[in-house]
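User: Sequence recovery, please. Input:
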């Protein structure tokens, strides 16, 4: 966002935006953690383990309740990359896909290293968070796509057959660039998704999610945001499976009371467009955040992906105060998520007061270095 754009932010608008940013990141993490308790289980196995209603609360995963997976880890590094891109804009080095890629490479290092290396001063504060160094079932395509420093592009994408939800689940933050035009949000999201997931349905699903979040962050309805995303996708080669999945989600809303059977009619979430469709459907029909997220994770499929995406949608739609406090209290890394969310909101609304030709806040540039 430019300095001219930030000047129009009033106090109420800043507070609303910060609530939606917090809601997006916390909601996605809560949905991720809820889904982690159902990972790799069929719905029948979920009911056998947790009762006839299935997962209704955090279940132990990775040795604790409220544990998050690689979906949340990568989302946080996406946000870190977007902040760095804004900071680096002062230098004239304005290429957000590169800055996001560098951030994802910092995540990839957490999957190889035992802990942060304090000698790397250009890593910033997020890469020094010890808890992010746990390996939490990352997508194989994410690991291989970020296994070297070569930047995947739409012309030469990494993993051209990868169509799982590994890129989708990290893409909600692109939609929080509310000062950007929707076409630019879409382009950035698909370019960054192609850095690990080169199948069109994978990167276009990521782009569609970014556009839906973008509309919600600007105060649009969920249905209206989905319709806008469908219009934007129409000119993109390979869009049809994503378009069909989203239309199927909208149609399912009119097919009766929400149920696991209706959720499973949209797919199992193991490919990106199905995960997006399930998340959108559950966000549309959920009576509240708790109901929507429970619906999103109780099915025979990729509960982590559908929970994380649905949580991000509900969070940006309703803001942080709509999220269940009991779940937030147990959420792994909640302090880090909040800190990063507030930093993002501050950068997007008050960036010129933190860095630029006339001012330079050393503490901010230490947190988000221009190098690296």
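Assistant: Recovered sequence (372 residues):
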């Amino acid at each position: 966002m430019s300095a001219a754009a930030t000047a129009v932010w009033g106090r109420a608008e800043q507070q609303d935006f910060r609530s939606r940013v917090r809601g997006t990141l916390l909601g996605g993490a809560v949905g991720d953690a809820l889904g982690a308790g159902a990972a790799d289980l069929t719905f029948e196995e979920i009911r056998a383990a947790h009762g006839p209603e299935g997962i209704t609360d955090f279940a132990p995963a990775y040795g604790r309740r409220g544990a998050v997976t690689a979906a949340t880890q990568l989302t946080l590094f996406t946000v870190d990359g977007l902040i760095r891109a804004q900071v680096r804009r002062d230098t004239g080095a304005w290429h957000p896909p590169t800055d996001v890629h560098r951030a994802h490479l910092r995540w990839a290092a957490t999957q190889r290293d035992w802990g942060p290396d304090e000698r790397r001063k250009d890593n910033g504060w997020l890469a020094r968070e010890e808890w992010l160094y746990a390996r939490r079932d990352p997508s194989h395509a994410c690991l291989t796509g970020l296994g070297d420093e070569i930047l995947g592009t739409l012309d030469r994408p990494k993993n051209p057959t990868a169509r799982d939800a590994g890129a989708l689940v990290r893409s909600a933050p692109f939609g929080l660039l509310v000062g950007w035009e929707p076409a630019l949000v879409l382009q950035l999201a698909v370019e960054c998704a192609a850095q690990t997931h080169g199948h069109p349905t994978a990167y276009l699903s990521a782009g569609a999610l970014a556009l839906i979040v973008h509309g919600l962050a600007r105060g649009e309805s969920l249905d209206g945001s989905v319709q806008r995303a469908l219009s934007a996708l129409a000119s993109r080669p390979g869009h049809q499976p994503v378009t069909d999945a989203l239309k199927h989600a909208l149609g399912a809303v009119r097919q009766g009371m929400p149920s696991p059977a209706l959720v499973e009619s949209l797919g199992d979430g193991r490919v990106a467009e199905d995960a997006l469709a399930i998340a959108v459907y559950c966000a549309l029909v959920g009576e509240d955040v708790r109901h929507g997220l429970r619906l999103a994770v109780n099915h025979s499929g990729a509960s982590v992906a559908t929970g994380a995406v649905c949580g991000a949608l509900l969070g940006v739609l309703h803001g942080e105060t709509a999220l269940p406090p009991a779940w937030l209290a147990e959420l792994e890394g909640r302090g880090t998520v909040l800190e990063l969310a507030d930093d993002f909101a501050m950068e997007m609304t008050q960036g010129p007061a933190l860095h630029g030709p006339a001012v330079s806040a050393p503490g901010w540039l230490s947190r988000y270095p221009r190098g690296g």
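Residues 1-7 have pLDDT under 50 and may be disordered.
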